[in-house]
Amino acid sequence: MALTGLEIFKLLPKTNCKKCGKPTCLAFAMALAQKRAKLEECPDVSDEAKEKLSAASAPPMRKVIFGTGDHQVQVGQETVCFRHEEKFHNPAVLGVTVSDKLDAEAMKKRIESINSLQFERIGIKIGVRTITIVNDSGSPELFAKAAEAVKEGSDLAIILVTDLPDAMAAAVTKVKDRIPLIGCATPKNAEAMAKIAAENKCPLIAKAESIEALSELTEKISGSGVEDIVLTIDGESVKDKLYNYSRIRVLSLKKGFRPLGYPTISFVTGSDDDQVALGVSCICKYSGIVIVDTIEPYALLPMLTAVMNIFTDPQKPVQVEPKIYSIGEPDENSPVMFTTNFSLTYYTVESDVEASRIPSYILVVDTEGTSVLTAYSGDKLNEKTVADAMKKYGIESMVKHRKLIIPGYVAVMSGKLEEATNWEIMVGPRECSMLPKYLKEVWN
Ligand code: SF4
What contacts 385, CB < 8 A, 6 or more positions away? Predict the structure, then answer.
């Protein structure tokens, strides 16, 4: 658990030598507690104090990484229970199962279907990020064969699931270069599973029937040298799962209870409709990884959307890249209009311009992700920022006219904008839903 400033102060040399740049040891202790200073900045701190302080400053929930390259995923390292307290750091990862009972053709098809579960929403790519091979057959040979087939057919991060250590040993050797997440270690097989995880340098899923059994299990696993652990609780109703995962989050973050300081994984089954409801619930409270059976895009999309919404930094609006966007195939006579880089604003404008069927240029001005009126009232959208963006992205060389359509809500800036750009300013509609009519009637 994090130490208070006074607790840290007791461990410092108390010489007030100022070498750390602070006037006193107490000031340094306070800065350290608020994470505004680093322990290394005090050159005289004892080894014993260093050990105590670094243990106390370790994150309350461990970060666990698996997969490789562009498909590497990381979960955990959360620091708060509620997003408004700060933000959530690592978005929940969604995965889909492949049974090792499938024949070669069916398996190939399923892997292809899982690979294709990628979507775009407000300009951001979202999709399934792991593929989970389940040892339904109980056969080490079939499990290993399925692992090979998945490795060949997909670049997604791999999770291997079996309670049988011999099956895990057979499969993990086929995919260990992809650093799979493996599981599940249970109170019965923990020793053997931890050995496989340690030998192959893979993170390990720990599964037990209660929080108490789970904390005993993680201590056993970490005692055998495996530090990267993901937690799951076996056989629960939705209500119990949400209750227990919330308790795990509170005990690890608020109470600093290390045996539960790991991310969690949920395995979701049932009808496609049930999986949507349960999957979204698990994403809300507090599964770092959610594994489903369904490959129906309609079932996956609500879960991916929930991840996107919950893991958005509340202090940082979703933004698009500031630049000139071409809608259709505009030419030197096409209209030019501007908007801000707040994603929601941009995509609303974009779809209305598309609806007009008039090829156009949209200049997106960097307003730190704020909407038109917010940016204008915060002075992030003014004649200078617009003129600078026009120059920076070279709109002058793309059209031969000198007319700029501005949002009706900021008609007030038209005079100054005309002076700053030497362009004719045309005041567009206040609501962008009126843009198709405006472009057809006024522009044309
Ligand atoms: S360098 Fe260390 S001993 Fe000196 S004032 Fe800072 S905290 Fe105190």
Answer: 365, 366, 367
Which pLDDT band holds residue 37 (cuts at 50, 70, 90)?
confident
Pinpoint the residues of the chain covered by CATH 3.20.20.20. 63-310
Residue 46 tokens, joined: 């004892």
Choose which CATH entry (3.30.70.3490, 1.10.3720.10, 3.40.50.2300, 1.10.15.40) describes domain 5-57. 1.10.15.40
Above pLDDT 90, what percent of the chain? 81
For domain 324-443, give the CATH number.
3.40.50.11600
Closest ligand 1 atom to residue 24 Cα is 5
Q: Whose CA is nearest to atom 8 of ligand 1?
A: 25
Separation of CA 253 and ligand 1 centre (Å): 29
Residue 1 has a pLDDT of 55
Domain 63-310 belongs to what topology? TIM Barrel (3.20.20)
- What amino acid is encoded at 77 in this protein? Q
Tokens of 393: 């992205």
Q: Is the pLDDT of residue 48 over 90?
A: no
Which of 368, 378, 362 shows the shortest CA–CA distance to 410?
A: 378
> Which residues does ligand 1 sit against, CB inside 6 Å?
12-13, 15-20, 22, 25, 28, 42, 44
Most confident range, picked from 30-39, 98-107, 343-352: 98-107
Q: Which two tokens stand for residue 130?
A: 């792991």
Out of 11, 28, 41, give the residue to mutate to test ligand 1, the one with the largest number of ligand atoms within 8 Å of its CB.
28
Q: How far apart are CA 248 and CA 30, in angstroms?
A: 29
- The model's confidence at residue 124, banded by pLDDT at 50, 70 and 90, is confident
| CATH code 3.40.50.11600 region(s) in the chain | 324-443
